[in-house]
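Hey forum,

I'm writing up a methods section and want to include a predicted complex as supplementary material. The small molecule is flavin mononucleotide. I've pasted the protein sequence and the SMILES. Can someone with a working setup run it? I'll credit the forum in the acknowledgements.
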Amino acid sequence: MANRGASHDARVHTIGDLKELGSNKLPKMYKDYFNEGAMDLITLSDNEAAYNRYKIRPRILVNVDNVDTRSSLFGIETALPLGFSPAAMHKLAHPDGELATSRAAAGFGISMGLSSYATESMENVASQGLGNPYFMQVCVLKDRSTTLDILRRAEENNDADRFAFDASLDWETTIPWLKANTKMQIWLKGVYTSEDVALAVEYGVDGVVVSNHGGRQLDGVPATLDSLRECVVAAGGRIPVAIDGGIRRGTDIFKALALGASHCLVGRIPIWGLAYNGQAGVELALKILTDEFRICMALAGCRTIKDITRQHITFLNSEGILAKL
Ligand SMILES: Cc1cc2nc3c(=O)[nH]c(=O)nc-3n(C[C@H](O)[C@H](O)[C@H](O)COP(=O)(O)O)c2cc1C
Ligand SMILES: CCCCCCC(=O)C(=O)O
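Reply by user p_vandermeer:
Happy to help. Structure tokens for the complex are below, copy them as they are.
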């Protein structure tokens, strides 16, 4: 049963409610653009299903009188280990678009990622910030001057628009070129494997995001929560490993952290909030996630984010047996 205490909206008690009500306010073409994925949607659906294969192992008689959900990204404090993934075209969901999303993120003190295909300028989006971390998703394009222009503008805004993707990118040229052209941290988004985490460390990348683009690129790859496990081992604490894809509940955030994620990102949730009620809808989503996460921490016996460990999670194997990780 839904947690009826979490929301201030009579109709929205869960992110599932928000998806249903928000999406259904949109023209079908926009709804499909936001909600669908690649091919047969197997990875899209598994991103969510994976969170149900892992179970929380609560500890009892832990003093959780004063649960502290604070975390950090890029060395900047966040109210939660949560942020918004860069996702294109928020104005298709609501005319206030990324400005509304940015204000909601700033008000809640969480991280805000901006897409190269945003419908608002990075300058206007970043100016909504209140000291919360901002990051810009950059495609390295065939026309490197366009990518350089995005990097310059992102640097000027302390935190990032245009087109042809470059399919010839490789480790040897791309990462050194990026590092030579910016002082900002460089994180790789779209990492799936221990091999590529090891290369990210070797090439001096600052962090990785385990992501399959919300099931919108290669159908048939694992759920990100399943990929996370090998990526965390490969990182070995040398670089942070963030995750996105399929996170819909506060308990999902808890599970990802227990499996070693340093930060969780959500792509469609702010879009559903925007579609439902603009900035107030995004804030409603964050209220639900914050309350659910705080309650989960307390009931699992974790007072701080550091208290959430591998001991707090177990895996339901194909025979329905809880296997210790
Ligand atoms: C409508 C939409 C547009 C997206 N646009 C981008 C983008 O421009 N750049 C990018 O790196 N990822 C993009 N993504 C992927 C998200 O950053 C993120 O990986 C994904 O949404 C996470 O899954 P979730 O929606 O289940 O949270 C997009 C995702 C969606 C749903
Ligand atoms: C030419 C515009 C491309 C926008 C791509 C946005 C995106 O990544 C998505 O998944 O949608």
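Some notes you might quote in the supplement: The pocket of LXCWX6NK (ligand 2) is lined by residues 88, 117, 213, 216 (CB under 6 Å). The two ends are 28 Å apart (CA to CA).
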